[in-house]
Amino acid sequence: MKQHALALIAGGLAIAFAGSADAQQRALTAADYARAERFLRDSVTPLVFGIGVQPISISGNRFGYRIRSKTGSEIILVDPARGTRAICSSETDRCGGAIDDRELSRLRGGDARVAPKPEVVSPDGKRAAFIRGYNLWVRDVASSRETQLTTDGAKDFGYATDNAGWVRSDRPILVWSPDSKKIATFQQDERAVGEMYLVDTKAGHPTLQAWKYPLPGDSVIAMIQRVIIDVDVPRVTRLDMPADAHRSTLCDHIICRGNEGWADVQWYPDGSQLAFVSTSRDHKHEVLRVANAATGKIRDVLREDVATQFESGNGLVNWRVLPASNEVIWFSERDDWGQLYLYDLGTGRLKNKITTGEGNVDQLLRVDDKGRALYFVGNAKERGRDPYFRHFYKIKMDGTGLTLLTPDDADHEITLPASAQYFVDTYSRPEVPQVSVVRDLNGKLLLTLETADITGLRATGWKPPMPITVKARDGKTDLYGLLYAPTNLDRTKKYPIVNHIYPGPQTGSVGGRGFSPARGDAQALAELGFVVVEIDGMGTPWRSKSFHDYYYGRMGDNTLPDQVAGMKELARRFSWIDIDRAGIYGHSGGGFAAADAMFRYPDFFKVGISEAGNHDNRVYEDDWGERYQGLLVRGPDGSDNYAPEANQLLAQNLKGKLLLAHGTLDDNVPPNNTLLVVDALIKANKDFDLLLLPNRRHGFGNEAYMVRRRWDYFVKYLLGAEPPKEYQLGRPPRAN
User: Fold this and answer.
1) 720's torsion region: left (phi>0), alpha (psi -120 to 50) or beta?
2) What is the pLDDT of residue 497?
3) CA-to-CA dists, residue 95 to 106, 224, 287, angstroms
């Protein structure tokens, strides 16, 4: 029988929580927190062995990798052709002379103490390109002699510069030609682009940080003027075309995760021509072009226009030009799934569709020109399996012969070394640890490399999260996620439910589907007396195009109707979930969603923690909002299509307890995003809590202090218990 707990009075605001007779109303101790802490990454990772295989190719079609075993760190040498796996006796052993000192150094890898220089080395290893004074230079590796390649670079109009919005560094953005004689790059024009400002916190005068940071609706954004540089002359050839927007077919910048160097640029093997894709500011129009490297003349090959936003894969750009056969492989979601198409490179005419049916091509890893075959990572193609599990396939270019190369019902991480006749397959599930094997290109098992050992982990009482499936807001669509329950779950009790959210659109709450001994602090939080859930709602990727675009142009949706529907279904399914005590937390986009949840569903979510949220995409970098919300359009009355999605305009709806947190030097999501919400809450006379972390940038969510404050907030206001005062994570507990 349910009853209501006494109202808690905090900061003058009365908050009534719907509790239950068996709710924990006691004070938690340091021992309780110490027990929860044992489920954090730093505590559980050392208890797992045989995971983290990262193959490094060496001579003779062999590879090696470094692994941590119960006896220490080992270097393993593998010969796939012979089916052998040898353990070097120590990290200084060259496996009986089977590898040389250079190869041993590569295999030891992580021992490097010096950060790599901000330069790009040519394919032949003889020259390295770098930026100096807004111009591009090359250094002869052997003699260290330096040559200036460009002379007209200037502030905010430099060559190969990596700076637009939240991504900025000193690395040059360019692609060397295969013969190491030419460089494809750009001169980036940001001279009239608006700036972002931050100041550090210190005694004395603060230091101002200012950099170019265009916003949605700005009349001027970062533009790139594409050039090709003949290094030996040197000579700069500017491509005969207007400047392109600083955009990519894959992500919200021209540099994308999984792509080394510059995405959407591919040299012909002989260096005579350069293929690239121009992406419009709103990501709705893509043009594949080919440039003559000597003259700069441009030829348009094909164009694709979409109603929402185009992307060329998941984690990897998937288009390829094939000059030898005068063809191009193009990626499109025009039939609601990510598919590959074969076009004529000369005429732009479609020759045939390569992949068909349900399921996506995620990453095209190899094109076998001679064998007319493709090798790709895909998902959602295997009926009866979790659609988020990745598998590896091969298919002929004419669309026949689709073959599954990874049979196990799990998520597969694939490493396919260049030109190798084998691949390394590491497969696992959220609840099943990794197995790493080597297979040939027909999928035949050659040998097993590692089987993860989690004996020590299980001995601590650790349990994996529970994979869950719930219905979306429409009552029909399956959604997938994870549930974390206390390892000492008492099914006769009622536990508050906490939603750990990241709404996308570029990823979801769950993240990878592989095994991990710790996924943030979800399990640790559960140990304090909660049920924690992560649900990938409609609008997140890896499903169909229509699923991914579900709330395009309505960023304030944040998958929240799906989160609420899923949480209610779980409460009906599991009697130990107390749906009347629901909380939510998230970081970055999750911070946006968490505060949004407190404002749009004030009677459902009682406690929320919003960290580093991009609460109003009009003040977040241009490419994010313009890709997923569309271009900013202002009406005659001064309104715009972004305003309905801004959290501060809903702040007056707050009823529960809300903690806002932000780093004061966050150069990804600047802190004014949160301060807009703070200002609105003050104007609405609402009580709330604010935590500003001085001199922190965007990634403070796993910092010990933030984790502890997060635990404290849910324990006090959702669990209805008193947390231990100022518990210090990472410090050994004091003896009684």
Assistant:
1) left
2) 98
3) 14, 49, 51
Condensed to tens digits (0 to 9), the pLDDT of residues 378-402 reads 999 999 999 999 999 999 999 999 9
What does the radius of gyration of the chain's CA atoms come to, in whole angstroms? 27
For 230, phi then psi, to 5°, come to: -85, 110
Identify which of 92, 93, 48, 99 has the alpha carbon closest to the alpha carbon of residue 70: 48
For residue 15, pLDDT beyond 80: no
pLDDT at 189 over 50: yes
What are the distances in angstroms from CA 184 to CA 6, 137, 163, 408, 593?
A: 67, 13, 17, 42, 40
Model's pTM, two decimal places? 0.93
Confidence at 92, pLDDT banded by 50, 70, 90: low
Nearest C-alpha neighbor of 139 from the set 129, 131, 125, 149: 129
Q: Is residue 514 classed as helix, strand or coil in its secondary structure?
A: coil
Coil, helix or strand for 236? strand
The SS3 call for residue 451 is: strand
Q: Which residue has the higher pLDDT, 170 or 33?
A: 33
> 686 exposed, middle or buried (CB, 10 Å; 0-12, 13-18, 19+)?
middle
Separation in Å, CA 35 to CA 43, 237, 486, 612, 729: 11, 63, 11, 28, 11
706: three-class secondary structure by DSSP: helix
For residue 370, count CB atoms less than 10 angstroms from its CB and return exposed for 0-12, middle for 13-18, buried for 19 or more: exposed
Report how far apart, in Å, the C-alpha atoms of 187 and of each of 83, 247, 410 are. 50, 14, 45
Mean pLDDT of the chain: 92
